[in-house]
């Protein structure tokens, strides 16, 4: 129902002119709509609700994408806390003892020198003594002393090996006895076994 703005008469919705004064009924409808603030409010409120629902949907999709990405990263191994020295193995790889023995024999002892260098560094690292005698110094002193220093080195390797294993033993003395019998390669195997068991835990 609308009213004429000119004379105030009540008009039907389909009327285009006031039957009493002849004024345009369409002007009355426009003025009446402008005076009703609820129309504008309802329109604005509906727009805001639609916008809020769209934003909520987008945020939900973004969260799902982020969660999926996080799960994928974990599945690929990204974002995991690293162990000491780059992993649970301290950054040291297990070495095959039989293969090391074969390579030492085939290369006439050249691989044995490399093996000693690696074992020295690995035992020092695992024993928590990174500043102990370096591998290069071990080789040099063994050559200068015509192999005598090697017995001292084997003794220290035995001590550090016991420290790694957490036992109070005399592996150093055992290593020296084995070396005196001319079986130094057996000492290297025993030292390698200590390293393999430690990094394999």
In a nutshell, what does this entry contain?
With 201 residues, the protein is an all-alpha fold. Helix content is 66%, strand content 2%.
Features of this protein?
2% strand; mainly alpha; 2 strands; two-stranded antiparallel ribbon; 201 residues
SS elements, strand count: 2
Principal-axes shape call: rod-shaped
Q: What percent of residues are in strands?
A: under 5%
**Largest sheet, strands/sense/barrel:** 2 strands, antiparallel
The N- and C-terminal alpha carbons lie at a distance of: 88 Å
Rg is 44 Å
Trace the largest sheet across and list its strands: 1-2
String of helices and strands: EEHHHHHHHH
- The helix tally amounts to 8
Secondary structure: helix percent: 55-70%
Mean pLDDT: 75
Q: Regions with pLDDT < 50 over 5+ consecutive residues?
A: 69-88
What is the SS-derived class? mainly alpha
Architecture overview:
By secondary structure, this protein is mostly helical. 66% of the residues lie in helices and 2% in strands. It has helices at residues 25-35, 37-76, 97-106, 110-126, 135-144, 148-165, 171-180, 184-199, and strands at residues 2-3, 10-11. The chain has a two-stranded antiparallel sheet. Helix 4 packs across helix 5, helix 4 (110-126) packs across helix 8 and helix 6 runs antiparallel to helix 7. It is rod-shaped, with a radius of gyration of 44 Å.
